[in-house]
Amino acid sequence: MGCEEMDENNITWIEASRLHPSQFYINEDSICFLRNNFDISLFEPVPIKKLGDSLVMTDGHTRTCYLIEMGYDYIPTIEEISELDWEAYRINVRDCEKRGIFSSIDLTKCIVSNDEFQLKWDKYCDEIHNRLSYLRNPCDYSALPYWKETTFHKPSYIKIYNEKEWLQLSEDIKRNFKRIDKYFRIKHALIQIDISDLSKGYKFRTFNPNREEDYDSALEIIKLSYINTDITKDTLKAYIKNKVYDESLWIFIDEINNGKNIPVAFGLADLDLFTKEGILEWIQVLPEYRRKGLGTSLVNELLNRLKRKADFVTVSGDCNNINNPIKLYRKCGFVGNSIWYIAYKK
Fold it and tell me: What is the crossing angle of helices 28-37 and 61-69, to 10°?
């Protein structure tokens, strides 16, 4: 069917192929209701918003789907005047396109049962809300990077509190914990990064996951830097299987001595492509090579590698570490004051 006239003055009929859905599930029960009770005179126009070059549907997906079923080539629309969360809608449109839903014509492929709709669409909307809340303030939102926040199963004997929650706890509750760890969590926006210069006699080298000697070298540096750590070579190999592993983000600083490369520092970062977050995980320099600027160079090198792939970078660390790692990260441009407490029940 072509364009039809309606009485409302502010309605525009737009080709269905030009409308971009922001929803990729259609409730079968709702479609069935329209099939049995449709009245064009009672039809509400579909609200749309121009985001970039796209005309995005902010609502009305079910009734649009019904019109497509009925053979309509044009859809009655009205400009969306409410101030909505446009960042969320941009994500919705991208997620539709990932599923092959490029225009309202594709909505007929999205019909699912009522039970499936309630389960999947509600779950998706909750995830979008949580993801956006995290992205807007990651270090205050969670003690963990988003990928860990959504996959980590916290044991019942561990409690996690932000600083405000911790300060509000009674002393009686705090006495029920056998151990309390205090961590900072800060963020780098990747806008301004120093050049990762190294002094003469040192060079960066990317970790080779197929070289056993690199696991041995990394493990030695970690254990000499953290005496009480229980990390093993198998632990390192397991990290490589994580979805956030990026081969270019495991690096050594080697000292060049008589033609030999001797690893003296090791850095490891993760990359979450889902949120475009970089995460600094391990930054270690052998004790006898500290105070030479190697830690700063290592962090800056990882930041420079991440800026081509991530939107921001986070790092956390022990507030009680005698080496005061937060000083290093602030020197490299990290900002924020988020504090988290990890408490272990007796």
Answer: 60
